[in-house]
Specification:
Radius of gyration: 20 Å
Helix content: 25-40%
Structural class: alpha/beta
Oligomer: single chain
Length: about 325
């Protein structure tokens, strides 16, 4: 699952420490706005290129130029200042079509887990109409910057390089969901991680996958680059408890065979909407949605007739 993670920056050899110091100077010279955790980002570039500074320098410089062009440094700064997924641009229109639960729950390798479930909420036409291609690109920047910043922060806290691993429940995703239009809309986003966020990904475990998922993956994987090697797609028969081979039971929801009864309190703020105003069980009638709802306080939705805040639908999604 990628390059071995160093236990600590202190364990680097003198040659590796010199390479990291040079990488910092190169990034600064190229205009990259580094923060207190950015040395972990730069370490990822060196790991990808097996500590060959000349090769890493080329990617660091191209990444710095790209970050200035798309405003990635400003996005990272806003996330460092406390911006949560629910506040990202267009998230209120995108989140009804897929449930994303970003967490700090660790895998066996110390990576951070994200849970994804789109069963019973994803429909091609509705999703394509919820946001423009430009908005989809921007939301992907926020996802990547969120993962990059928080993984670097966790790396600094633990002294071990932390990656982003994902558990995707593909139950219910069939041929009617496989669309070249969706792949085309996401095409500009697919190479971003490989080009500008090296060594960020751990694994992506896709469970309960029908044959259609393999068809979709065959469409997009050529554009993903080296990260495609980190993807495992399991059919329904092979899926029960599959995550337990990669993460402790305490990080795995009970609906996926683990012992985690509810999302820890400090993880709730990363959900796409505040639970006190959002009925997750109604909005996401799938495994992950029902599990979340069972451990969250009941949504206290405002009553528009009594002047109680924004107008909301039956699920609590703002209109």
């Amino acid at each position: 699952m990628g390059e071995p993670a160093p236990i600590s920056l202190d364990t680097l050899t003198e040659q590796q420490q010199a390479a990291l110091a040079s990488a910092r100077l190169i990034a600064k010279e190229a205009g990259w706005k580094l923060d207190e955790f950015s040395e972990w980002t730069l370490l990822r570039f060196l790991l990808k290129h097996r500590w060959k500074l000349s090769a890493a320098e080329k990617q660091i410089r191209s990444t710095a130029a790209w970050r200035a062009e798309v405003g990635a440094d400003a996005i990272r700064a806003s996330i460092a200042a406390g911006l949560q997924p629910r506040d990202w641009p267009a998230m209120d229109r995108i989140c009804p079509h897929v449930l994303l639960a970003f967490t700090n729950l660790p895998t066996d390798d110390g990576d951070r887990l994200t849970y994804v479930d789109a069963n019973d909420v994803f429909e091609v036409d509705a999703f394509l109409n919820c946001a423009t291609a430009a908005e989809i690109f921007v939301i992907n920047l926020y996802v990547l910057e969120h993962a990059s910043y928080h993984n670097d922060r966790r790396s600094a806290a633990t002294g071990r390089l932390c990656r982003w691993s994902t558990h995707f429940d593909a139950r219910g995703i069939g041929m009617r969901h496989i669309s070249v239009r969706v792949a085309w809309k996401f095409r500009p986003c697919l190479p971003l991680a490989d080009n500008f966020y090296p060594s960020l990904f751990g694994f992506m475990l896709t469970v309960n996958a029908a044959k259609a998922m393999a068809v979709f993956w065959s469409l997009v994987s050529p554009f993903v680059g080296e990260n495609a090697k980190q993807v495992a797609i399991l059919d329904t028969e092979s899926s029960p408890g599959a995550l337990l081979s990669r993460a402790p039971a305490s990080s795995v929801p009970t609906c996926y065979g683990g012992s985690l009864l509810r999302l820890p309190v400090d993880e709730v703020s990363r959900l796409p909407a505040p639970p006190e105003r959002f009925d997750y069980g109604a909005a996401y009638p799938n495994e992950l949605g029902r599990w979340l709802a069972s451990g969250l306080p009941a949504a206290a939705l405002p009553d528009p007739a009594r002047g109680g805040g924004d107008e909301v639908g039956e699920t609590g999604i703002s209109r």
